[in-house]
């Protein structure tokens, strides 16, 4: 046994040592990748980002070459001609010292960005003399090249990765580019591709002598995946043009799929401003515009009172709760009295049934409907809970789950909300009656309102709005194909849709008709308040319009908000009409509307905030 044991121990020991050596030399290359080893130099090859196309195959975002000057402090020569470096790169000596010091703090042996995003001409001038400047190197990267001058809020941009991200995600190194905002951020992993790596052996004099171990550890760069967006680039560009000198948002959705056709925010900016060496300066300028706020995506982030379009939901809930039917009538005497000295004004008069209530946009009709809905229950909190539940089934009061970074919940109050405001009780349907007409506490974003329209077009269901249509050699999230059903029965949508159809025929949008397109719509006007010098001030009302078309086979649902735009049919209505015709026909017949929207704006209206001129109230 002893004769066998000793040889066995020797053999086992030898195997363990061999295995460890194999692991260290062949499998474990972490010591290489750390590149703190003086004998190994790591060079990265950066892939092109994936291209971005619209739903019709039109190229929207491509790439252009860019060059970064990198510096490795440990390799800098003691007698380097710093003045010549500064002169060639058009930087100051202070800049040179600052960048080298920061690079030394990051890592003496790892390359850091000295000067980013040189163009071909700048790169060529430095490349000719780079051999004189030991410690400097050139890395080729690609920057975005926009094929359309629109969609900045959708695309986002790419910028240098921060230290916090580098610590969390080892894939990124100093100077790497990463997607920020928009689809560049959401689909960063797909778009960025995979870096290639080369390990270069150096001798004891720090001279490069060839690939480390014959290049067995080297990898090639893999280009990012191309993606196709749901966006219609022509519709997007047209929408941005229509918002000339206006503030607000436009969101258009394909009802049957939830695909976002256009996502417009105004004012906006050219996506090319955030490309190249001037990106940082341009971003700061955009950020300083605190009035127009071009970096603020109003289509996703702005929370507005929805105004009269909300009456559609008030009617649907009334039908579902069986407190009204199509033939229920209410008499309007230019408003609705809901308490001693409390009166909700209305431009209408006479007796209206549901159909007329919609196309005339009668406040009295929907105030009565809301009151009956809440008062159906033994306690107002029970009525509000039922009402709130119906609304939330439309995706309201919560994030919709779309594939873009920013978002807001909006606000759909429930019983707990009012209990906090009225801890001693005493509130009832009349206390919160403004909710009936989309005022009160209710807040919605334009994308929520557009999704509401898509749901009505579908008679009770919707798909999560999304911007991605296809990822080359990849799959989109299955949540975008999941149907969401509301709490409203399908047959209740028919009378509502008929009323919306007559909004265009004989109602508040009758002057916006388009030949051969049956459009269902709803105008809206929402009160608008802000604080000026600490004082709550009522501004000119917002102009709102929602619609879908065609009536019998809806292909587009849309919501338009125009801030300080007076009433719904003045600005938002024409824009919605033109967008619908552009998408369905590809051409415009309502040239009268188009000329006005493309050339007229609200510049003077917005200037009232600083000029002191009076705002137009309830006109």
Automatic annotation (TrEMBL):
InterPro entries: Beta-lactam/transpept, Beta-lactam/transpept-like, PBP_dimer, PBP_dimer_sf, PCN-bd_Tpept, Penicillin-binding_protein_2
Keywords per UniProt: Carboxypeptidase, Cell inner membrane, Cell membrane, Cell shape, Cell wall biogenesis/degradation, Hydrolase, Membrane, Peptidoglycan synthesis, Protease, Transmembrane, Transmembrane helix
Gene3D superfamilies noted in UniProt: DD-peptidase/beta-lactamase superfamily, Penicillin-binding protein 2a (Domain 2), Penicillin-binding protein 2a, domain 3
Domain Penicillin-binding protein transpeptidase stretches: 248-576
Membrane topology note: Single-pass membrane protein
Penicillin-binding protein dimerisation domain mapped to chain residues: 46-209
Primary location group: membrane
Record-linked Pfam families: PBP_dimer, Transpeptidase
Molecular-function annotations in GO: serine-type D-Ala-D-Ala carboxypeptidase activity
Record protein name field: Penicillin-binding protein 2
Annotated organism of origin: Flavobacterium litorale
């Amino acid at each position: 046994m002893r004769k066998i044991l000793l040889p066995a121990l020797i053999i086992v020991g030898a195997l363990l040592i061999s295995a460890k050596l194999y692991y260290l030399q062949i499998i474990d290359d972490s010591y290489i990748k750390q590149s703190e080893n003086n004998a190994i130099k790591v060079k990265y090859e950066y892939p092109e980002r994936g291209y971005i196309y619209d739903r019709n195959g039109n190229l929207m975002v491509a790439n252009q070459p860019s060059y970064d000057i990198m510096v490795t402090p440990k390799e800098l020569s003691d007698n380097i001609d710093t003045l010549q470096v500064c002169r060639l790169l058009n930087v100051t000596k202070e800049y040179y010292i600052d960048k080298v010091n920061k690079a030394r703090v990051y890592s003496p042996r790892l390359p850091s960005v000295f000067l980013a995003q040189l163009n071909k001409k700048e790169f060529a001038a430095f490349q000719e003399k780079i051999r004189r400047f030991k410690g400097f190197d050139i890395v080729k990267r690609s920057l975005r090249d926009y094929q359309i001058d629109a969609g900045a809020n959708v695309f986002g941009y790419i910028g240098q990765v921060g230290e916090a991200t580098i610590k969390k995600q080892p894939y990124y190194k100093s100077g790497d580019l990463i997607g920020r905002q928009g689809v560049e951020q959401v689909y960063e992993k797909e778009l960025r591709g995979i870096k290639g790596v080369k390990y270069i052996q150096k001798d004891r004099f720090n001279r490069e002598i060839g690939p480390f171990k014959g290049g067995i550890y080297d990898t090639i760069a893999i280009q990012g995946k191309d993606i196709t967006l749901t966006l219609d680039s022509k519709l997007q560009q047209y929408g941005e043009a229509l918002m000339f000198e206006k503030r607000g948002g436009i969101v258009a959705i394909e009802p049957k799929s939830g695909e976002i056709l256009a996502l417009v925010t105004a004012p906006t900016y050219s996506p090319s401003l955030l490309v190249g060496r001037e990106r940082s300066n341009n971003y700061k300028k955009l950020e300083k515009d605190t009035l127009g706020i071009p970096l603020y995506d109003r289509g996703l982030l702005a929370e507005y009172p929805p105004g009269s379009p909300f009456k559609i939901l008030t009617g649907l809930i009334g039908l579902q709760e069986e407190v009204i039917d199509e033939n229920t009538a209410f008499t309007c005497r230019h408003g609705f009295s809901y308490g001693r000295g409390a009166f909700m004004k209305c431009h209408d008069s006479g007796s209206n049934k549901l159909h007329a209530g919609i196309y005339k946009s009668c406040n009295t009709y929907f105030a009565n409907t809301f009151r009956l809905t809440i008062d159906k229950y033994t306690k107002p909190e029970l009525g509000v809970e039922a009402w709130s539940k119906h609304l939330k089934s439309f995706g309201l009061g919560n994030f919709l789950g779309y594939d873009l970074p920013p978002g807001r919940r909006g606000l759909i109050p429930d019983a707990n909300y009012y209990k906090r405001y009225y801890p001693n009780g005493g509130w009832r349907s009349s206390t919160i009656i403004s909710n009936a007409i989309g005022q009160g506490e209710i807040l919605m974003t334009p994308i929520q309102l557009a999704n509401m329209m898509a749901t009505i077009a579908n008679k009770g269901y919707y798909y999560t709005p999304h911007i991605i249509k296809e990822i080359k050699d990849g799959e989109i999230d299955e949540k975008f194909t999941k149907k969401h059903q509301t709490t409203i029965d399908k047959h209740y949508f028919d009378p509502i849709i008929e009323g919306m159809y007559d909004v265009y025929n004989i109602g508040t949008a009758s002057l916006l008709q388009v030949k051969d397109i049956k459009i269902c719509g709803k105008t809206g006007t929402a009160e608008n308040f802000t604080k000026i010098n600490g004082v709550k001030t009522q501004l000119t009302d917002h102009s709102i319009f929602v619609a879908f078309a065609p009536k019998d086979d809806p292909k587009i649902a849309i919501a338009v908000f125009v801030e300080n735009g007076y009433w719904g049919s003045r600005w938002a209505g024409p824009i919605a009409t033109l967008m619908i015709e552009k998408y369905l026909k590809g051409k415009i017949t309502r040239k009268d509307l188009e000329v006005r929207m493309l050339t007229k704006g609200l510049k003077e209206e917005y200037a009232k905030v600083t000029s002191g001129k009076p705002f137009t109230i309830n006109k």
